[in-house]
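Repro:
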Amino acid sequence: MLSLALAGKPNAGKSTFYTAATMAEVDVANYPFTTIDGNRGVSHVRTDCPCLDLEERCDNETCHDGKRYVPVELLDVAGLVPGAHDGRGLGNQFLDELTDADAILNIVDASGGTNAEGEPVEVGSHDPLEDVDFIEREMDLWLASIVDRNWESIERQARSPGFDIDEALTEMLTGFGATTADVAASLRELDYPEDPAKWTDEQREALAVEIRTRTKPIVVVANKIDVAPSENVEALLNLDRPVVPATAEGEVALRRGVEQGVIDYDPGDASFSVGAKLDSGTQSTLDALEETMEQWDGTGVQAALKTAVYDLLDHITVFPVQDPTHWTDAHGNVLPDALLLPRGSTPRDLAFAVHSDIGEGYLHALDARSNRDVGEEYELTEGDVIKIVSTAN
């Protein structure tokens, strides 16, 4: 399962975003370090379900009338403060929890209503652009410190015959979420000596930045968009990186309303409807939220997840089935599974994603939409419905 992590300074709305995305109960309060131990749960990213091409919608619990919700892991770590990479605010502990994340959602208080330490200040008095830069910088310096701590071992290895600097760095960095391909691509971007003893601090930091950029891509979530000054929003949207405006608090309100049976809304919808008479205060709050959603095409919570999974990580959703005629599994369940795979994946990759035994016994695959065999080199696309034929079936 893909893993997304929420990062940001204290009181930026990370825990509220986590609640909005998972509906799990966590501590949310208006003071720094509400979260001490990381919260780990399951969220869902929305895509179109292939059942839209069938006469009837499937009855899968993760499909809401053709809106399919695919599970991803979501991690909420405690807020980071300047100097976190040096351990300030238990920063090293919190940063280490990001090691296995595939992408980071940097939750930024777009309202400028909290200072660099996460303490409440007058709305608009703090520049949220500073929070964008500092989180990225802290993550870069955190990884640079890990490289530094392991550098003595690299230098000892260099005394052995047949030492290869690229192999040594690959072995070290794959322990921090990088793949062999990530390390190779990063090294191609750098000019460095073969002798690790001749590396400078700047070269080690440059390596860390390259690795972090490739292994921990970041989506900036401009949270509290409903109360943010327009100049803050404009500045964030002009950044040269993915930025998604959001109101996590608004999403929580809608999800609570759905639970209470008074609001009709699916996560990711651009609007909602109210099915009961509400008190004037609640109705006024929802009217304001409706205006925000009209302006930004929703609350932004699902958009942020979708941007991370489908855009930044460039994944697709594939639906494996056993019966290619009815698109069911062995028990007659229609489109029972939805798997996220990197773009460029093949049917054999899908087979291994279903189960290692299925992959080991892979024979061929069938496109259930066209009822035609697809070759082993066929690149799967978003929404493919595939029958895997394997000796392990």
